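In keeping with the milestone schedule agreed at the kick-off meeting, the structural modelling team has produced records for the first pair of proteins. Each record is given below as a sequence line and a structure-token line. The laboratory manager (R.T.) confirmed that both were archived under the project's standard naming scheme.
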Amino acid sequence: MEEKTQETAMDIPSMITDSAEDYLMVTEQGRRYKTTFTRKFENRVPWTPPNPEEVKSIIPGTVHRISIQAGDYVCQNDELLVFEAMKMYNVIRAPFNGMVHEIRVKEGDHLPKGAVMLVIRPTNETPKDIKKRVRIQQTAVKKSKGKKRKA
């Protein structure tokens, strides 16, 4: 059997030769094309690189339960919150070890796709160090609740 090869016009790269504010000149295989930008292209939202510290909603839904507070240290895969979407409860977990810097939602909030729910700042601490710090914080809170204030 004989192998068949096919050459396409896409084998030769196109070149942008001239770019102005209202049009674009493209050269393809020696032919020149002039094109204009659409309104949709001109009004588009510019792309920004994602911030790994932000935890965003990936689908529209409702915040069902928040399991952490601002200032808490979390380990990778610790539960941060429960997000209800499409009649399912989705557990949102910590992507890395860090400290919860800011919580931008509260229970019952309805969120669109891409809304920032919370911000986590990464730390260089190991999970063992973080769990030790959390235990110290919890015992300090218990001791402060047990003491009576003098009037």
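The second protein of the pair:
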Amino acid sequence: MIQGSIERDICPIGLAADLIGDKWSLIILRDISILSRQTFNQLLKQNLEGISSATLAKRLKRLMDIGLLTVSKDQTHSQKKLYCLTEPAIQFIPIIFNLAHWAESHHHPSQIFVKPIEAYLGDDKGLIDNFLKGLRQIHLEHKPIAEVDEIFLELAS
């Protein structure tokens, strides 16, 4: 990762690429934000791409180190940790939707995965803002998903 004063000497696109790093970081952010998978086991066992335990652990640490994730205790289980998005990560989610929109427009991924997020792949700023508001309630205010918006329950299932 590029550190300190060197950051001022790099192109913002290069810096963003360096910070995000690889596909696994995007997939982890997708799984936490869109699919409501917040524990290590959920991220590992329910991951569609088959991430390894070691890679997941490294990427979670990296995402925490660069300020995109925090860890909190699960109120329902004393030994369970929840990975939560930070405000910078929440602000990154529209970029993930834009990447998905680009891939869907030009490379035709499986509709099984496109359909649940299809409404967020357009230009409906109000819809995306509402989604981000829900993420803030879940990840920053620690509200239960069921108390936020039905869409989070739908995407998590």
